[in-house]
Description:
The protein is of the alpha+beta class. The chain is 34% helix and 23% strand. The chain is built from 6 helices and 8 strands, in the order αββααβββαβαββα. A 5-stranded antiparallel sheet has the order 1-2-3-4-5, with helices on both faces. The protein has a 3-stranded antiparallel sheet with strand order 6-8-7. The protein is globular and about 40 Å long. The mean pLDDT is 92.
Amino acid sequence: MSGLSGEPTVLVVPTVVTDRLILRCWRPADIDPYAAMNADEETMRYLNGPFDRAGTERLITHLAGMWVLLGYGMWAVEDKATGEFLGRAGLYYADGWPGVEVAVSIRRDRWRQGLGTEACRASITWGFTTLPVDEIITFPNRDNAGMNGVARTLGMVFQGEASAIGPWRDSNLYSTTREKWAAAIGS
Length: 187
Ligand SMILES: CC(C)(COP(=O)(O)OP(=O)(O)OC[C@H]1O[C@@H](n2cnc3c(N)ncnc32)[C@H](O)[C@@H]1OP(=O)(O)O)[C@@H](O)C(=O)NCCC(=O)NCCS
């Protein structure tokens, strides 16, 4: 009855562990390393950035708040071996989005090691296991070689060009369905 009585709701954000990563709830200590990532023009080329530290703090509040509002959201990504902050990953949705999106951002010195794919794979599996969604999409800018590569490596199917808001206008839409994902994981 906490919603009716106005009492605060205690929310437990799930933790997902993969071979090399821990996807976990955000912490205040993530602000500095995430702000460093968000200050990097190359990392933020397709993410409407760069952002300063205050912008990063607001973004983390937004990403953490999605769990309260929607029951899913984006995790902080931690290196399982060292505990270092490596970025963010998870499921995202906002008004105007063409569907529930798998999204990821990895610290630039760790690109091209399969970590983006690993984080997205775990996010999609968590989504289909936990949420009543039958399709998960992603729609990277058509020039974003990294995220187009992740989508292809995950076996997501190219659906055509997508348009949404902000810098995501010239995007490629990929999707996977609950059925396809179950078949791929089983194979
Ligand atoms: C998108 C991003 C997360 C990719 O992460 P990553 O860990 O480097 O990706 P992976 O190593 O899992 O690579 C997946 C595939 O894409 C390919 N790829 C990755 N980056 C690439 C690049 N810059 N150019 C060409 N291919 C690339 C890889 O070779 C791999 O293909 P393979 O499986 O055939 O070998 C990373 O580039 C990033 O953080 N970019 C900035 C944030 C961003 O734009 N996020 C996407 C918006 S949601």
